[in-house]
Amino acid sequence: MITFMNNSDSEEEPCNERTSLMSAESPPVPSYQDGLQASEAGEVQAHRKRRTGSSRSPNNIADGNMSDSGVPVRESTSENEEEELTLKYGAKHVIMLFVPVTLCMIVVVATIKSVRFYTEKNGQLIYTPFSEDTPSVGQRLLNSVLNTIIMISVIVVMTVFLVLLYKYRCYKFIHGWLILSSLMLLFLFTYIYLGEVLKTYNVAMDYPTLFLVIWNFGAVGMICIHWKGPLQLQQAYLIMISALMALVFIKYLPEWSAWVILGAISIYDLMAVLCPKGPLRMLVETAQERNEPIFPALIYSSAMMWTVGMAKPDTAARGPSQQTWDAAEDGRENHRSPSHADPQMSETRSPVPTRPITSFEELEEEERGVKLGLGDFIFYSVLVGKAAATASGDWNTTLACFVAILIGLCLTLLLLAVFKKALPALPISITFGLVFYFSTDNLVRPFMDTLASHQLYI
Amino acid sequence: AFFWLVSLLLASLIWFISVHLSDREDAKLQYGLLVFGAAVSVLLQEAFRFAYFKLLKKADEGLATISEDGRSPISLRQMAYVSGLSFGIISGVFSVINILADSIGPGIVGIHGDSPYYFITSAFLTMALVLLHTFWGVIFFDACEKRRYWCLGLVVASHLLTSGLTFLNPWYEASLVPIFIITLCMGLWAFFTAGGSFRNILKCLSCKQEDDSRVMMYSALQVPFED
What we know:
The structure holds 2 protein chains of 2 kinds. By secondary structure, chain A is mainly α. Chain A has a domain at 90-303 and 370-394. Chain A has 16 helices and 3 strands. In chain A, helix 5 (79-114) packs across helix 9 (231-252), helix 5 (79-114) crosses helix 14 and helix 10 runs antiparallel to helix 16 (426-453). In chain B, helix 1 packs antiparallel against helix 2, helix 3 (76-104) runs antiparallel to helix 4 and helix 4 (118-146) runs parallel beside helix 6 (172-193). Chain A: Its EC number is 3.4.23.-.
């Protein structure tokens, strides 16, 4: 299995995307133009998600930049309502993100528990060359740290490369890279996964049927992710490819390296998104300046775009409930595409509250969605999957990690609503997850086991 | 659920430390430490329930101030129910999921002389525990709200009693029956605390269309409809 993992960079692609939760508020940039819906996206969010204390002046600047709104006055008066809306939508967003994250984790845990293939050690990625089969603990620790350093540096290099590509507008290259990654995910990994599942349940399937199934799955997936498709199907595909990617990581990362990598990646995420010269932050700002939508296949979005009573004719043509990601064709993507990070294996992480179509003249009914980068999904699932695979306390540890990650996500979204700028979604959740994993495995498990053996309840 | 997990973590930490500091060979001591650990865990759970109550109160105030009509979109009773339910679910799941997982595999229950009713009694006990946590949540929040501290004490005492009764396993008559009686009493108490009454039950059973009934939505942050 190691052979195909060389220069195609299939595995670390995903690692390159950093997770960042994008807030609604965009930095005040003079490039917002009248009539451009994309600008509205930023502004609307700036409006709608405004909270009184946190970002007054930027909001005002953003209001000033608001082209066609003419509603700065309205905004100030209905601020209370907006805050309420913010909270309402905030809570809804949390739920909208809980469901896909949970689904992804369920798929990963179910596979880990049933298909033996993903817990067998069959070699390692070339990005983690040091083996962990060493006699002493110190050596093993050293090896895992070295593995982590190599992995993280690969990720950093890829991210910087992507930022450069994006800065110099090499869109075709990025598109090609994206398409290649998702091709590999959708076809090759699905084939392997299906093969292993069939083996586990001892189901015979002939090659023509297999070919038909995989071909259909993959082709529909490519279309859904990169072009148009029903929103739910696209979401389902994104969840599936995140799960597949996470399974690959779980299989090929050695134990200690996996935990150290998880920790290191959340630190890296924190730095990359928050530091002024961080690659992800630069990506985010560049994307915001250009008002471009993010590339498909990198972001999970739960937005449904439909508006009632459009004021803008072009948006009326959109039609209801199509999560359309064709920025290229449309040019009027209203989403903010903060983190263009890596279009790698859908690794981007930049949850951004999107404001698909907004018109300020009338009250539109639209569902604002939240976006979460797929890299987040992948690493959350890696954590939970590793907990399921390696913890001897089995289900308790898995559940504890699951709850911890969800609470971390909740807190991160709360912070997003407060700070309204790009935030990394990994650190809090992964920290909670790691803390809960190690403490549950070592402390709670013996306690609960002893209690259960005496049938005591607490 | 998170709060319950944290309380469990702390309790296990205490138990773990106490076990490591003590003599491993002494079975009676270990059993005593287990009892101690369980008691500490119960107390910590209630403490964290209180902490959660405080947190929700704060959030409630915040929601009320920013909402349009000055009322929070979710009532404290709903929060009490949800909090109790989630404590119950996570507690129940933690107690029973490993048993469930083991029950799939091949094996014979009680082959070493233990009770062969282990699984079914575990199931019943878990159910009782989940219900109890829900009821305790409702009563607890209400007691904190109205500052009836004797109610609080009763809740904690009944939790301790329930946990203590499980120590009588496998003498199931002595443990299961009282626990179910406690569950029933707590259920009735919670029902009346939450504002129920015989009239409500009759109204509900007769399926009359009430004009002035409030529709309480459970989704977060929805203003309840009112006439």
